[in-house]
Amino acid sequence: MSSIKTTATEDHGLEAGQDNIRVLGLDIHNPVFFVSAVIIVGFVIFTLIFRSSVGPALGNLRVWLTSTFDWLFIIAGNLFVLFCLAVVLSPMGRVRIGGADAVPEFGYAGWFSMLFAAGMGIGLMFFGVLEPMYHFNNPPLGIAGPVADGVLSAGAVEAAREAAMAATIYHWGLHPWAIYAVLGLSLALAAYNKGMPLSVRSAFYPIFGERVRGWIGHVIDIMAVFATLFGLATSLGFGAEQALAGLNFLYGVPVTDTMKVLLIAGITAIALGSVVAGLDAGVKRLSEINMVLAVLLVAFVFALGPTGEIVAGFFSNTWSYVTHLPALSNPFGRTDDEFLHGWTTFYWAWWISWSPFVGMFIARISRGRTVREFIVCVLLIPTVVSIFWMTAFGGTALSQFLNDGYQGVQETVVAYTPELSLFRLLQPLPLAGLTSLIGIVLVIVFFVTSSDSGSLVIDTITAGGKVDAPVAQRVFWATFEGLVAIALLLGGGLAALQASAIATGFPFALLLLLMMVATWKTLQSETALINRARTR
Fold first, then answer.
1. Where are the membrane-spanning stretches (predicted)?
2. 185 CB burial (10 A radius; 0-12, 13-18, 19+)
């Protein structure tokens, strides 16, 4: 049988770097690079000058967006999951990214390590212990909390535990990975099946045609740059807070603004080295090291924590997630506004702001996979890993509190010091000093892989889809990722970081909804090509 060619041959008029200009040895897209760079540099300067005003303003913006558009974020997240499942179950799932003859560039181990380190990373370290315990104390969906005036109410414990684990998995399961899968698949098909530049605007060609070469495309790419940079800055800020808290906990390093700045600067410098090394020597190697360390840490907690409870909890928590999913994903008639606005809406905006970065990065490393294989691996496998991670860490924290009477993690909830929760969990376990140090290293390496992966993506967008732009451009973006994180931390702390993620995630949510339509059109055309080739 002759090979089936699924790569479209139509002349779309788009080539990587076709509108680029070369200045001072740089190869940059005009005007995407200049507009993005000027606004971001201006934002950093403005935030540092007006620190006292920026924090409250961003806080007010966050409250308005989460309370006004919570329904949009929740419905959009549901649609992304349904879209992915529909594609997997349809004949379009057999389309191969890059055409029928394409072969994967990376093996499963390297591919999965890179996509998982890029997609979750710091967030799992920061929230893996705290979030289940927090939701246990403050259950969603109107469920009565088990803790009242410090006294446990036995009748409410099990319901609160189930709701807490279901809510946590909801935030780290199918929905965030569906967001990444939608954008990643759309870009991969545009780049490798249609021969267009690896840039966000290319995904919208089925809708806008050659108008994506003009200001429609410029605005889309600029929005993608902003979403990526501020989504990354949020994660880098969380990582810096947690790493510094761990250093203080272990070695007494003072938690000051100066130390935060020095820590971000130091880790950004490490990221610059990885950026210069490139994808294979830098990002891939660090991601694999990170995966090994993460496996060692979760295996340690699994072995020395309540092993039997973790095994049983994996299945019971998965079932709790499934049974609570309809209520958790319903945006209407809710009374748990603190959970809906403070957690779910923030998370969805954060994942959406990360989607250009993670989606493009996944697209770049996924050539040769079938669409069905792509979605299953990007959607289901990380969800299973997230369930196990949250069960191991969150379940251990709950067991320490309920069965052992240990107050360490509970105190981080009461005082809301989330950056300390991981280290307080490890404190009563053997080798606490060593495992806490591994936790700090993990946070730092996740920080580095996120930064250099993000730099590669932003550089590709601002270089008109070129993946081999000069290294100096990646260095520029890696540097400003660190500077934006510093500016936001100094200008308003974690609240300012969260507000910036929501502000950039909101407009990009609308683009992602439109992108689903474009992706469906592309998949239909690719499936038609396969069918015609098979009937010849």
1. 32-51, 71-89, 109-130, 174-193, 214-238, 258-279, 291-315, 345-362, 374-393, 429-448, 475-495, 501-520
2. buried
CA-CA-CA-CA torsion for 419, 421, 425, 430, nearest 10 degrees? Answer: 20
DSSP 200: G
Q: What is the mean pLDDT of residues 119-144?
A: 84
DSSP string computed for 81-115: HHHHHHHHHSGGGGPBTT-TT---SS-HHHHHHHH
Taking a C-beta distance cutoff of 8 angstroms, is the pair 534, 16 a contact?
no
Cis peptide before 206 (omega within 30 of 0): no
DSSP 404: S
Q: Alpha carbon 208 to chain centroid distance?
A: 28
Q: How far apart are CA 496 and CA 234, in angstroms?
A: 9
Q: CB under 8 Å to 493, separation ≥6 — which residues?
A: 55
- One-letter amino acid at 454 equals G
Q: Which tokens go with 226?
A: 């902003």
144: how many CB neighbours lie within 10 A of its CB?
A: 11
Q: How far is CA 459 from the centre of its chain?
A: 18
Task: Report pLDDT digits (tens) over 43-95.
Answer: 878 877 887 787 788 778 888 888 888 999 999 999 999 999 999 999 999 89
pLDDT digits (tens, 9 = 90+) for 190-244: 989 888 888 899 999 999 988 888 899 999 999 888 888 887 777 777 788 888 8
Q: 151: which strand partners?
A: 148
Q: What is the pLDDT of residue 149?
A: 52
Q: Which amino acid is at 271?
A: A
Least Cα distance to 328 among 77, 120, 512 occurs for 77
Query: Is the N-terminal amide bond of 428 cis, ω within 30° of 0?
Result: no
Chain mean pLDDT for the chain: 84
* pLDDT value of position 9: 43
In whole angstroms, how far apart are CA 32 and each of 28, 199, 206, 211, 490? 8, 11, 21, 15, 28
* Mean pLDDT on 309-324: 96
* Class of residue 519 by CB neighbours under 10 A (exposed 0-12, middle 13-18, buried 19+): buried
What is the rounded CA–CA span in Å between residue 312 and residue 308? 6
Closest C-alpha to 76, from 374, 351, 322: 351
C-beta of residue 515 within 8 angstroms of C-beta of residue 220: no
**Tokens coding 134:** 């927090």
- Structure-derived torsion over alpha carbons of residues 385, 90, 77, 226, reported in degrees to the nearest 10: 90
Both tokens of residue 385? 């890993």
pLDDT of residue 7: 46
CA distances from 62 to 40, 68, 497 (A): 20, 10, 10
pTM above 0.85, yes or no: yes
Above 70 in pLDDT, residue 246? yes
Q: What is the chain's alpha carbon radius of gyration, rounded to the nearest angstrom?
A: 23
Q: What is the pLDDT of residue 73?
A: 93
